[in-house]
Write a structure and sequence with these properties.
The structure holds 2 protein chains of 2 kinds. By secondary structure, chain A is an all-alpha fold. In chain A, about 75% of the residues lie in helices and about 0% in strands. In chain B, strands 3-22-21-18-17 form a 5-stranded mixed beta sheet. A 4-stranded antiparallel beta sheet of chain B has the order 5-4-19-20. Chain B has a 4-stranded parallel beta sheet with strand order 7-6-11-12. In chain B, about 45% of the residues are buried. Chain B is an alpha+beta fold. Among the domains of chain B are: about 90-160 and about 195-335, 3-Layer(aba) Sandwich (Rossmann fold); about 350-410, Dna Ligase, domain 1 (2-Layer Sandwich), CATH 3.30.1490. The chains are: A mainly alpha, B alpha+beta. At the A-B interface, helix 1, helix 6 and helix 17 of A face helix 2, helix 9, strand 7, strand 8 and strand 9 of B.
Chain lengths: ~325, ~500
C-alpha cells in the first residue's frame, strides 16, 4: 500500500472517531448541566479535554460559556478539532483515497459531511443540540460499521482500526485525566458519595454507564477508573482499545515484511503488557494524573513510530539518489 | 407526458425529424417519456441530481476557494446515435488517430512530411505544444497518443464534423460511465427495448492498453494513475479511473526516481512502476526536463522514460497535434501518411497563413468563427455573427499582424437534443466527445460524452460556462425502418 494512502486512511479514521468523541463530550456536558441545580457551569474542563485550551483562550477570551464552547467545539472551522473540521478533514482524506476505500464508506462519510454542514448553516446544531449530537454519533457508528462490512480486512482496514482505537484510547484517557480531581477527592473521603452525578457523566462520556453497572454494580471511583482504563472487554476502555490497535499493527507489520526505523509494534505491545498487569490501587496511590501522563507520552511515541515506519518511506541509503542528496 | 408541444426549431434535432415525427431509433424512448405522468420526468431529474451530490461526483472550480466542488449538471434525456452512423464515426476516428500518431512520430524524428512540403515548416515553430525535449524519443510500441478525446459536432446540414482533437489529457470519460450507471437505474425498461452498446468495459480496455506499453520485466506490469492532487478540477475522474482499473492513484510525492527506475513509496518500502497514466501536463511532469518551478512533477522521470524503463501515457509532446493550425492540415496529413481521403470531415477551415485563406477570412469576417492556434476553452476567439463591427476590425488587425496564428471557420449551428427545462422538454445544443484508446489496436468507446449547453440559445457546452452532460446511446443495430431516417442527412 502506498505510504501516502496508508497515511490518509489513518487520518480519515482518526478524524471520524475524534468527531464522535467531541460530540459525546459536549452532549454529556449539556445533560450534566440540566442536572446541576447550581449555576456553576463546568465548560472549561471540556475545552481542556480536547487539549486546545490555549487556542480557545486566545480567540474566545478567559470565560468558557455554554455558547462559546459549543461554537468552538462544534462549528468553529478555525478549530482543527471541532466536529465540523474533523468531519471535513476525514472527508478530505477519504477523497484522496476514494479508489482504495469502498464506495459505501465514501457515501457514508460524504453524507455525514453534508449533514454536519447543513446543521451548521441552518442553525439546527444550536437549536436542537441533543438530536444533532446523536446524529453525529450515529453517523460515526455507521461509518465504522460500513467499513467493517464492506472493506477487505487487509492492510487498509487494519490502518483504519489502528487509528480509530488509538484515537479512542487517547480520548478516554483524557476524560479520566480531566476529571481525576473529582475522583481522587472521593478516594480521600472513602465511603462518601461525593458527586455521583459527575461520575455518571464521566461514564456516559464514554458510553460506559450501562456496561459499568452490569460489571461493577455500585458506583465507586476506584472501579470507574479500573473500568475505563483497565477493562479488557469494554470497547471504549483504554486497554481494550490498545489491545486491538496492537493486533492491527501486528497484522500490518506481518504483511509488510522487513522492518526499518523504529518498531512501533514493540512500543505498543509494551504499553498493552503494562496495562494488563496494572493494579488500580497502585495507580491511584502513586497518582492517576502522573500515570495517565506517562501513558499519553508513550502513546505519542508509538504514533511517531508508526509515522516513521509506514508513512515516511525514505530513499535507500545505497541508491544513487540518496548518495547525490548527501553529497 | 404530452410531447406534442416540443419545438424542433430551425436546427438539426437528434431526436425528431424536421416535420416533428420522432426518428425511428428513438421511438422506444419517446414512448417511455410519453407514458410518464406529468411531473414524473421532473421527479426523476431531481432524483438524478440528488444521486450525484450524494455520490460526490464533482469537479473542482478554479478561481474559487480551495475545495469548492460542483456537480456537473446531468440531463436525463439521452442522445441516441444509430448503429450505422456510429460505424462511420468509428472508422473516421480510427483513421484520424492512426494518421495523427504517424504525424507526431514524424515531427519528432525525420520530419518527412515537411521535407515533402505537405505541410509548411512553420507548423512546428508556431506550435505551443511542440516539445524539443522529445525530439528523437521512441515511445514504447511507437505509440504517442494513447488516449484521445475528439470533439465532434453536427451542423444543420446533418453532417458530423470534427471540431478539435484533444491529444494531451482529455477528461470526461468518468462522466460517460457514471451517467450510464445512473440512466440504467432510472430507465431500466428503455435499455431492454433499445439494445444499447455498453460502455462499462472502458476501464478494462484502458488497463489492457496501458499494460501493453510496459517494458519487459518478467513480472506483471505495475500501472499507476498520476494525478496533480485532490484540488485538481478532474480529481474525481483520476480517482475513479484508478479505482475502476484496480491500480494505484499516485501523486508526485509518492514517486521517486533512483537507480534508473521510477519507484513508489509503500508501507513495505519501494516498488517499481512500469506504466504511468499521467494526468499532469507535459510542462509539469519533470522539473529537470520541463518547467523548473513545477511542484507537481517527478524529478528525473524523463530520463527513465527516454531509457525505456517506464512508459508514459500519453507520451509527452502530443500537444503539437492539438494545435488549431495543425488541425486545418489534418486532411492533408491523412492523405500523406495513409494515402486515404479523410472519412470524418473537418469543419471547412481557412488557413490564414495561406494567401487565399487570409483573403477569404478578412472578406467574410462577420460570418466566420476565428480561432487562435494555441488557445482553448473559448479564449482568443471571434464569433463573427455575435460580434460588433469594432471587434471584427480589431481581429482583422490581429490576423494581418500574425496570419500564421489564425484559422477561420463558418459559424456552425450545432444540432439539438430535447432537454429537461422546468419539467418540460426544450431543444438545447450539443456536441459529442468520443474516447479513443490506441494500444495493440485502436478502440473507440461507443458513444462518448455528450455535452449540452443548458442556457437557451447558447452554443457553449463547457462545464465552466453553464454546460451539462447527457448519456449517449449507440444502438447495437438499427431499427428496420432506419433507412428512411438516415435519408435526410446521409
Amino acid at each position: 500500500m502506498l505510504s501516502r494512502v496508508a497515511d490518509s486512511i489513518y487520518w480519515m479514521s482518526r478524524y471520524v472517531e475524534r468527531a464522535e468523541n467531541v460530540a459525546r463530550f459536549v452532549d454529556v456536558n449539556l445533560n450534566l448541566i440540566m442536572d446541576s441545580p447550581t449555576t456553576d457551569q463546568q465548560w472549561q474542563p471540556l475545552v481542556n479535554t480536547t487539549g486546545d485550551h490555549a487556542d480557545f483562550a486566545r480567540r474566545y477570551g478567559p470565560v468558557a460559556t455554554q455558547q462559546n464552547v459549543l461554537q468552538f467545539l462544534t462549528f468553529d472551522r478555525e478549530n482543527p478539532n471541532s466536529i465540523i473540521s474533523c468531519v471535513r478533514a476525514a472527508r478530505e482524506n477519504a477523497r484522496s483515497v476514494r479508489e482504495i476505500i469502498s464506495s459505501e464508506m465514501w457515501l457514508q462519510l460524504n453524507t455525514f459531511y453534508l449533514m454536519v454542514n447543513s446543521a451548521a448553516s441552518s442553525g439546527k446544531g444550536f437549536e436542537h443540540p441533543a438530536s444533532f449530537f446523536s446524529e453525529v454519533k450515529l453517523a460515526s457508528h455507521l461509518f465504522t460499521g460500513v467499513t467493517d462490512a464492506t472493506m477487505t480486512h487487509g492492510e487498509g482496514w487494519h490502518f483504519c482500526r489502528l487509528a480509530r482505537k488509538l484515537e479512542r484510547a487517547d480520548k478516554t484517557s483524557r476524560i479520566l485525566d480531566v476529571k481525576y480531581f473529582i475522583l481522587l477527592r472521593s478516594v480521600s473521603e472513602v465511603g462518601t458519595l461525593y458527586d455521583d452525578v459527575q461520575w455518571v457523566a464521566v461514564l456516559r462520556s464514554a458510553s460506559a454507564f450501562e456496561m459499568y453497572r452490569k460489571r461493577h454494580g455500585r458506583m465507586s471511583p476506584m472501579a470507574i477508573v479500573e473500568f475505563l482504563l483497565l477493562d479488557g472487554e469494554f470497547p471504549r476502555a483504554v486497554r481494550f482499545c490498545l489491545n486491538s490497535a496492537r493486533d492491527s499493527l501486528h497484522a500490518i507489520s506481518g504483511t509488510s515484511g522487513g522492518a526499518n526505523g523504529k518498531h512501533p509494534d514493540k512500543q505498543l505491545s509494551r504499553i498493552c503488557a503494562e496495562l494488563a498487569h496494572a493494579n488500580v490501587h497502585d495507580i491511584i496511590s502513586t497518582g492517576l494524573h502522573e500515570y495517565l501522563d506517562r501513558l499519553q507520552t508513550n502513546l505519542n511515541s508509538a504514533s511517531t513510530g508508526i509515522y516513521e515506519r509506514f508513512f515516511a518511506t525514505r530513499v535507500p541509503e545505497s541508491s544513487q539518489a540518496a548518495r547525490q542528496k548527501t553529497q | 407526458m404530452n410531447l406534442s408541444g416540443y419545438q424542433v426549431g430551425d436546427f438539426f434535432d437528434e431526436m425528431y425529424e424536421n416535420d416533428g415525427r420522432p426518428r425511428p431509433a428513438v421511438c422506444p424512448l419517446v414512448r417511455k417519456i410519453e407514458s410518464l405522468s406529468p411531473g414524473e420526468l421532473a421527479n426523476r431529474q431531481l432524483e438524478a441530481d440528488r444521486a450525484l451530490v450524494q455520490a460526490g461526483i464533482t469537479f473542482n472550480v478554479y478561481g474559487e476557494s480551495a475545495g469548492v466542488e460542483k456537480t456537473l449538471p446531468f440531463d436525463l434525456v439521452p442522445r441516441i446515435v444509430t448503429a450505422s452512423e456510429w460505424d462511420r464515426i468509428e472508422k473516421g476516428l480510427k483513421q484520424r488517430i492512426r494518421a495523427l500518431n504517424l504525424f507526431i512520430d514524424d515531427l519528432y524524428h525525420d520530419r518527412k512530411i515537411i521535407k515533402d512540403k505537405a505541410v509548411p515548416p512553420d507548423i512546428i515553430n508556431s506550435s505551443k505544444g511542440f516539445r524539443s525535449q522529445c525530439v528523437g524519443i521512441n515511445p514504447p510500441r511507437g505509440i504517442w497518443c494513447h488516449i484521445t478525446g475528439t470533439d465532434l459536432v453536427r451542423h444543420k446540414d446533418g453532417q458530423i464534423y470534427v471540431l478539435e482533437d484533444n491529444l494531451r489529457c482529455p477528461s470526461g470519460v468518468s462522466y460517460v460511465l457514471e451517467n450510464r450507471r445512473l440512466m440504467k437505474s432510472l430507465f431500466p425498461e428503455v435499455f431492454d427495448a433499445s439494445k444499447i452498446r455498453p460502455v462499462s468495459n472502458y476501464p478494462i480496455r484502458l488497463r489492457d492498453m496501458l499494460e501493453y506499453l510496459a517494458p519487459e520485466t518478467g513480472a506483471p506490469p505495475r500501472v499507476v494513475v498520476l494525478t496533480p492532487g485532490v484540488y485538481n478540477s478532474a480529481y474525481f475522474e483520476h480517482s475513479f479511473l484508478a479505482q475502476q482499473m484496480g491500480v494505484e492513484l499516485v501523486q508526485n510525492s509518492d514517486l521517486v526516481v533512483f537507480d534508473g527506475y521510477v519507484w513508489m513509496r509503500t508501507t513495505n518500502g519501494f516498488e517499481r512502476v512500469d506504466v504511468i497514466y499521467r494526468r499532469i501536463d507535459d510542462d509539469f511532469l519533470d522539473p529537470e526536463t520541463f518547467r523548473k518551478d513545477s511542484m507537481l512533477g517527478v524529478p528525473g522521470l524523463m530520463s527513465v522514460y527516454k531509457a525505456g524503463n517506464v512508459a508514459l501515457a500519453n507520451a509527452p509532446g502530443t500537444g503539437v497535434a492539438d494545435d488549431k493550425v495543425v488541425y486545418a492540415y489534418v486532411p492533408r496529413i491523412i492523405k500523406y501518411y495513409l494515402g486515404e481521403e479523410i472519412l470524418l470531415p473537418n469543419v471547412p477551415t481557412h488557413i490564414c497563413a495561406e494567401p487565399e485563406g487570409l483573403a477569404y477570412a478578412l472578406e467574410h469576417l462577420p460570418e466566420l468563427v476565428i480561432k487562435a492556434a494555441n488557445e482553448s476553452g473559448g479564449y482568443g476567439m471571434l464569433i463573427g455573427p455575435h460580434s460588433t463591427r469594432e471587434q471584427c476590425e480589431e481581429f482583422a488587425h490581429k490576423i494581418k499582424a500574425d496570419p500564421r496564428n489564425y484559422i477561420a471557420q463558418p459559424t456552425l449551428a450545432l444540432s439539438r437534443v430535447p432537454t429537461v427545462v422546468d419539467g418540460l422538454l426544450e431543444g438545447r445544443h450539443v456536441d459529442l466527445r468520443p474516447y479513443i484508446l490506441y494500444g495493440q489496436d485502436i478502440f473507440v468507446l461507443p458513444g462518448g460524452l455528450t455535452r449540452v449547453a443548458l442556457k437557451k440559445g447558447s452554443l457553449v457546452v463547457n462545464s465552466s460556462q453553464g454546460g451539462g452532460t447527457k448519456d449517449t446511446w449507440v444502438l447495437a443495430s438499427d431499427p428496420a425502418t432506419a433507412d428512411q431516417s438516415r435519408g435526410g442527412h446521409a
